[in-house]
Amino acid sequence: MKLTRRNMIAISSGAAVVASFGAMPAFASLADDAIAEITGGAEMGEGALTITAPEIAENGNTVPISFDAPGAVMVALFADGNPTPKVASFKFGKLSPSHSASTRIRLAGTQNVVAVAQMEDGSFQKTQANIKVTIGGCGG
Amino acid sequence: MAKGVKPRVKVPKTASAGETITIKTLISHKMESGQRKDSDGNAIPRSIINRFTADFNGENVIDVTLEPAISTNPYFQFDSVVPESGDFKFTWYDDDGSVYEETKSIKVG
User: Where is the secretion signal located (chain A) (predicted)?
Assistant: First the structure.
């Protein structure tokens, strides 16, 4: 094939497409990695787990979060927009009747808070809540 | 040991056998995340409470792993069943190795 100008453009745009696809995995979020660390990439169901959080938090330094996970042995919270996405993990003993808890967390900005619960049978449940943060809470 | 650490716990004094009670705990602690910088631009090292446990007569109720994203003065509210009279023991583990403890008795009447 003779290297005309038209061919040259076709080749270079093709190369650009390949390059952009190659870069895609770099955009996979830290939160997804942290979640996969716990679940081992297992399928996650929905339904049994609920998060209660404000829709708008004025101060990202203390955002009240509570969750309710009947039948869960472990619940982990993640904030997908924080520099370190892990927030906390709760393990429940025999004396815990409701498998619910509330706490206060820091959020760097508007983002999703994700809860992943490990159920008694070893399966995983997931739910998330979007929280709008007016003032971020990670210093700076 | 971090300065001015004071645990505060709210547990009802009495309950009936098998009743579910709500427990509120709060501990005063700076929870320095390690993300902040001082006025010279140096990172302030992380200093947080990394674990909190609550037990009743040696039986675990809740065991929490804390990350820097937990707010200053970590607060937890959770439920527990009270099968008999006894003591709730709350333990906080600091990054610097300190352990803070608090005990509350409850009577089943």
Answer: 1-28
